[in-house]
Design brief:
By secondary structure, the protein is α/β, with parallel strands linked by helices. It has 3 domains: 2-171, Thiamin diphosphate (ThDP)-binding fold, Pyr/PP domains (Rossmann fold, 3-Layer(aba) Sandwich); 190-353, TPP-binding domain (Rossmann fold), CATH 3.40.50.1220; 368-544, Rossmann fold (3-Layer(aba) Sandwich). It contains 22 helices and 22 strands.
Length: 565
């Protein structure tokens, strides 16, 4: 035990939990903590907007597998974090948000920059704490890390009244904490595992659907082993890319609205689906009543609320997917030998051969799929790609092969524009030894472009590739296809000269107007010691195909604008 202020206890608690960096922006109600930073070894990275701080913490968490920390003052500082917290919540990312609050005697009295932060974030966090005494802080920090990083991960908030930060107390730092009512179930029931093994063993057309849970649980090796044991093709959710190497012969890529058509078609024909760590979101399944209606579905997830929520399944299993897959592998090995080529394998080859791919030829034109493919060619397998939201994200989903876990970082559940660039900064802080690239649209990049200041001042070199079509491209595509070309609110008009803009921040700006120019610029960027932005002018009429229209089944793939009729 030792006497110290609440602020120093907070930072010592963070340090004890392994936190070495905090992304934040100061203000009056959190100023005592910022003063304590001067006596701490924890690195503080100054964001230029609180939303960016939250996305940086999120990118750090997804790249490292450790909780990311963000910090803001009370009132507008706290509310500016909300979008980032909601983004992390939707994608099960472990971040800890720390906010200042007005002093305890003035809570509820409309003090300057007061708001009910705990009330605001309760629906989008796993838990929100508000200590009323300084000595509560060490145990709360310990609990926050445990809650954020165990079970189904997610954000936790600590709201600190100003006087609680200042007051000195005798602090005790617990080595472990018990949280009443919090006991995530991680071990599968052996009977359920046996049933799953029987269903898979007796299936003729098995498939595996891998989601973000595989990456969270570090279960990629187990996933690969079971796929090769069963000779079962693997599809992924959008957030699950990288959980199974997409250059593997058994990979069919992502399913869903903008999934690979061969993946969508194959899962419609499967007779048994092993779904691991997935949410069965409408973006992945299309029409729920049409999705895999003839298949026995085995659904493994650590969150019991997800089992049967959107789709009735044959066999629900509550467990950590890594532990469950280890048990399932052991059970299968007692029943079967490794499968060889099957009729199902031949059928999958037929499906692949029937897919109508876009013909980009050997042209030097700056087609967006070719840009994405060139990025994959030039990045190492452990290089990290973040995306914004819009056409850029969908091009990445379709044409970027994620090979290793935690190398594909994107906002899927909430679909947050402006996420990719600050997330790339957080990922680079977590993995300084690997190149980190943000695939952006011009609309998304403008939302958080001021994070360039953070890159330059903190010496965090990342690469940004802007697919610049001077529109909100995804919305424009939908208006073109489904609203008879009645464009509303999508033309960005006088988009700035991005080269000059980024140079004004002290970053490097490049422009590519052909594939050859892009290749040269990208090689320079990923090897540069300064943040580099590559402006790629592209045609707004270049729409993302193939895709599945809203309200359609996965077997109703549109390959061009004429197919919608």
């Amino acid at each position: 035990m030792s006497n110290m202020s609440g602020s120093k206890a907070l930072l010592e608690g963070l340090w004890n939990e392994g936190a070495r960096v905090v992304f934040g922006l100061p203000g009056g109600a959190i100023m005592p903590v910022y003063d304590a930073f001067l006596d701490s070894e924890i690195r503080h990275i100054l964001a230029r907007h609180e939303q960016s701080a939250a996305h940086m913490a999120d990118g750090y968490a997804r790249a490292s597998g450790k909780p990311g920390i963000c910090m803001a003052t009370s009132g507008p500082g706290a509310t500016n974090l909300v979008t980032g917290i909601a983004t992390a919540f939707a994608d099960s990312s472990p971040i800890i948000a720390i906010t200042g609050q007005v002093a305890t005697p003035t809570i509820g009295k409309d003090a300057f920059q007061e708001c009910d932060t705990v009330g605001i974030v309760t629906p989008i966090t796993k838990y929100a704490f508000q200590p009323m005494q300084s000595q509560e802080i060490p145990a709360i920090v310990k609990k926050a890390f445990k809650i954020a990083s165990t079970g189904r991960p997610g954000p936790v908030l600590i709201d600190l009244p100003r006087d609680v930060q200042i007051n000195v107390a005798n602090m005790s730092f617990p080595k472990k904490v018990d949280i009443r009512g919090y006991n995530p179930h991680i071990t599968p029931h052996p009977v359920q595992i046996k049933k799953a093994a029987d269903l898979l063993m007796n299936s003729n057309k098995p498939m595996i659907w891998s989601g973000g849970g595989i990456i969270i649980s570090n279960a990629a090796p187990q996933l690969r082993e079971i796929a090769e044991l069963l000779m079962a093709p693997v599809v992924t959710s959008l957030i699950g890319k990288g959980g199974f190497p997409e250059n593997h012969p058994l990979s069919l890529g992502p399913i869903g609205m903008h999934g690979r058509p061969e993946a969508n078609k194959a899962i419609c024909e499967a007779d048994c689906i092993l779904a691991v760590g997935v949410r069965f979101s409408d973006r992945s399944t299309g029409r729920f009543d049409e999705f895999a209606k003839d298949a026995h579905i085995i659904h493994i997830d650590i969150d019991p609320a997800e089992l049967g929520k959107n789709k009735k399944v044959k066999l629900p299993i509550v467990a950590d997917v890594g532990i469950a897959l280890k048990s399932l592998i052991a059970s299968l090995k007692r029943k079967i030998v490794k499968r060889d080529k099957t009729l199902w394998s031949k059928r999958l080859q037929e499906i692949k051969s029937q897919i109508r791919e876009g013909d980009f030829g050997s042209s030097n034109e700056l087609y967006q799929p070719k840009i994405v493919q060139k990025m994959r060619e030039l990045l190492p397998s452990n290089g990290i790609l973040t995306t914004e939201v819009g056409k850029n994200q969908m091009w990445g989903e379709l044409y970027y092969q994620a090979i290793e876990p935690r190398t594909w970082i994107t906002s899927t559940g909430l679909g947050t524009m402006g996420f990719g660039f600050p997330a790339a900064i957080g990922a680079k802080v977590a993995k300084p030894e690997v190149p980190v690239v943000d695939l952006a649209g011009d609309g998304s990049f403008r939302m958080t472009e001021n994070s360039l200041s953070t890159c330059i001042e903190e010496d965090i070199p990342v690469t940004v590739v802007i697919l610049n079509n001077s529109t909100l491209g995804m919305v424009e595509q939908w208006q073109r296809l489904f609203y008879n070309g009645r464009y509303s609110g999508v033309k960005l008009g006088n988009t700035p000269d991005f080269v000059k803009l980024v140079e004004a921040y002290g970053a490097q700006g490049l422009r590519a107007q052909s594939i050859k120019e892009f290749e040269k610029a990208f090689k320079e960027a990923i090897n540069s010691e300064v943040t580099t932005v590559i402006d790629c002018p592209v045609a707004p009429e270049e729409d993302v195909f193939p895709f599945v229209a809203p309200g359609r089944g996965l077997n109703e793939v549109l390959f061009n604008s004429e197919d919608k009729n």
